[in-house]
Design brief:
The chain contains 10 helices and 9 strands. The protein has a 7-stranded parallel sheet, with helices on both faces. It starts with a strand and ends with a helix. Bound molecules: NADP nicotinamide-adenine-dinucleotide phosphate (NAP).
Length: about 260
């Protein structure tokens, strides 16, 4: 039977690469983001390449109206895999950033994720099978100056997903968290982060690891050796050292730090 994967933020970057990975494995796709043209182009391409069905739904996940419409639309299908990937970062000292951008970020990455998961998990529990993959970050494990709300949001995603996985232990439903580090997508340009190097993993490499491990039901998926090391240090260093480490890494990448400005 044709399994279906619902992927948010499928119009670019990691979401687009995840869509291709699921299509390669024969999953039908339910793709959503705001950019209708990009979604439709991707759906057509993946249908041609992999002979699967791909449907699209344009939605702005920062609005509860659109999220409700998406939930209703997705409710017409048996969703086997839900990927909460849509997201963006707000960069800058918290004192200087626009609070409405931060609330929009939380709406997209937390409110929409919770609503979609709430509906999907109920249906998955009834069928006693399903996979939820939530996209967090290596920043889930440490405070990050200049991305304070973003990092806290990613910590929320990791904590919530871990609790949910435990609640679903006796069912056939699994929950995974993808924690990528720097990945070459539109993410940093959109956040106004000028990185002097074209560093990081490709979205395709991240997606391959993510899909393989999520389908096995692994909780935490950290792609790449450097990211694994960063997560290990973030989880084991005292917070003050962890912050210094991030400031050091970001300074080497040419990103401004609090220390640079003072
Ligand atoms: N790239 C990295 O270095 C990195 C590192 C760690 C974690 N991540 C996480 O990976 C996830 C994917 O990011 P990416 O790197 O692939 O960046 P990206 O290329 O900018 O893709 C972001 C996706 O989110 C969608 N999106 C943004 N705002 C939306 C909204 N209001 N409503 C609906 N969809 C929205 C965008 O689609 P539309 O613009 O068409 O709506 C796009 O498809 C994010 O959760 C991000 O936090 C990325």
């Amino acid at each position: 039977m044709n399994r279906k994967a619902l992927i948010t933020g499928a119009s670019s970057g990691i979401g687009k690469a995840l869509a291709a990975e699921f299509a390669k494995r024969g999953f039908g796709l339910l793709l959503t983001a705001r950019d209708t043209n990009r979604l439709e182009t991707l759906a057509d391409e993946l249908e041609d390449r992999f002979g699967i069905d791909a449907e699209t739904f344009t939605a702005d996940l920062s609005t509860s109206d659109d999220v409700e419409k998406l939930v209703r639309w997705a409710g017409e299908y048996d969703v086997d895999v839900l990927v909460n990937n849509a997201g963006f970062a707000v960069k800058g000292d918290f004192a200087d950033t626009d609070i409405s951008d931060e609330f929009t970020m939380l709406d997209v990455q937390l409110s929409a994720m919770l609503r979609l998961t709430k509906h999907a998990v109920a249906a998955m529990k009834q069928r006693n099978k399903g996979t939820i993959l939530n996209v967090a970050s290596v920043y889930s494990f440490s405070p990050v100056p200049q991305q304070a709300v973003y990092a806290a949001c990613k910590s929320f995603i990791y904590s919530f997903s871990s609790s949910l996985k435990a609640e679903l232990r006796s069912t056939g439903v699994t929950v995974s968290v993808l924690a990528p580090g720097i990945t070459r997508t539109e993410f940093r340009t959109r956040a106004g982060i000028a990185d002097k190097n074209n560093a990081g993993m490709s979205a395709e490499a991240v997606a391959l690891i993510a899909v393989e491990r999520a389908l096995k039901g692994d909780l935490l998926i950290v792609p790449g050796l450097q990211n694994k090391l960063f997560v290990f240090l973030s989880r084991h260093l005292p917070i003050s050292l962890s912050i210094r480490l991030i400031e050091f890494i970001n300074a080497r990448r040419g990103l401004k730090t609090t220390a640079d400005r003072s």
